[in-house]
Amino acid sequence: MSDVVLETKNLTKEFKGFTAVNNVSLRVERGHIHALIGPNGAGKTTCFNLLTKFLVPTSGQILFNGRDITMAPPSQIARQGIIRSFQISAVFPHLSVMENVRIGLQRPLGNSFHFWQSEKKLSALNDRCMQLLAEVDLEKFADTMTVDLPYGRKRALEIATTLGMEPELMLLDEPTQGMGHEDVHRVTELIKKVSAGRTILMVEHNMSVVSGICDRISVLQRGALLAEGTYQEVSNNPQVMEAYMGTTSGALEGAH
After folding, report:
1. For residue 202, what are the β-bridge partners?
2. Which pLDDT belongs to residue 105?
3. Which of 74, 53, 33, 4 is nearest to 201 (CA)?
4. What is the phi-psi region of residue 105: left when phi exceeds 0, alpha when psi lies from -120 to 50, beta otherwise?
5. Distance (Å, rounded) from C-alpha 130 to C-alpha 74?
6. Which ranges in the chain belong to alpha helices (H)?
7. Beta bridge partners of 67
8. What is the pTM assigned to this prediction?
9. Residues 100/156, Cβ–Cβ less than 8 Å
10. Which member of 55, 83, 114, 196 has the greatest number of CB atoms within 10 A?
11. DSSP bridge pairs for 83
C-alpha cells in the first residue's frame, strides 16, 4: 500500500446544473510532484478550490493523511499543512524581499499579521528568512524592493513565503504561467529543488515542465478524470491526445 497524502473520493461540484468537477477520485502520494492537467475549462482550478476549501463540494470526500477534511474550514486546512501558493502568498510590492518573507513567517495561520511586533522580535526571524531566500536563490535580492523584482523572481519569492508556512502539501497554481523561457526554466528547477522532502500538487499548462519534473499526472476533461499515470503513459493515451489536439494523431508535446 503506497503512502497517500491526499485522496479525493468521487469529488463533485455543481453550479446551478453545470457540473464543473464530476466524480473525481485522486490519490497524491507522499514525496511526489503530481500534476493536474487538462484543456481549458477542464475543471482544474475548481478542483484546487475544493481542495483548499475556497469552495464546498456538492458531494464526495477529501482525505488528508487519512483524515476526512471535506467540511473543514480553509484556516484549518492551512494549519494541517495544505498550503496553496500564488493565492495566499501574494507579495507586498513596496516592501523588501526580506520583509515579505518575514511577514509570511509571523503569520499565525488563519489570523491577522502582527505588524505591531517590535523590530527586535522581528529581526529574530531574519536567520530563518535568509534560509528560505537561499532555498529559492534570492539571498542577493534580500534588500530589493519587491516591485523591482523580475516576474520569475517574484514567483520564487511567493514560493519562499509559502515554504515559510511549512507545508506538508504544496499546491502550485500554474507556477510558470506568463513566463518567458528563461524564467520557466528557473522556476521549474526551483520546484524540483524545493520538492525534496515535500509533496507538490500543481496545475500546469506547460507540457515540457510537466514532462520534466512530475512523477504522476492526472488529466481532467470536462470536469472528469480522463487518464492518470506517468507522462509517458498519458502522452501516449489516444483519448488524451484527442482531448488536447482534437485528433488522435499528433502528440501531447508542445500542447500548452
Report:
1. 35, 172
2. 80
3. 33
4. alpha
5. 28
6. 44-51, 74-80, 97-106, 119-123, 126-135, 151-164, 181-194, 207-213, 231-235, 238-245
7. 64
8. 0.86
9. no
10. 83
11. 170
SS3 readout for 7-23: EEEEEEEEECCEEEEEE
Angle (deg, nearest 10), helices 151-164 and 126-135: 130
What gap in Å lies between CA 65 and CA 44, rounded to an integer? 22
Return the pLDDT at 107: 63
**What domains lie within the chain, and their CATH numbers?**
1-71+170-179+199-256 (3.40.50.300)
Mean pLDDT (whole number) for 157-173: 90
**Is 60 exceeded by the pLDDT of residue 174?**
yes
Q: Is 47 helix (H, G, I), strand (E, B) or coil?
A: helix
pLDDT of residue 212: 93
Q: Say what the pLDDT of residue 75 is.
A: 84
- For residue 175, pLDDT over 50 is answered with yes
Q: How many residues does the chain have?
A: 256
Contact 66, 119 (CB under 8 A): no
214 Cβ contact partners less than 8 Å away, ≥ 6 residues apart: 33, 34, 35, 202, 231
Ramachandran category for residue 171: left, alpha or beta (phi over 0 → left; psi -120 to 50 → alpha): beta
**pLDDT tens digits, 7-59:** 999 999 999 989 999 999 999 999 999 999 998 889 999 999 999 888 999 99
pLDDT (0 to 100) of residue 31:
95
Return the residue matching grid coordinates 524564467. 183
Would strands 169-173 and 82-85 be described as parallel, antiparallel, or unpaired?
parallel
Measured torsion, CA atoms of residues 226, 54, 76, 121, in degrees rounded to the nearest 10? 120
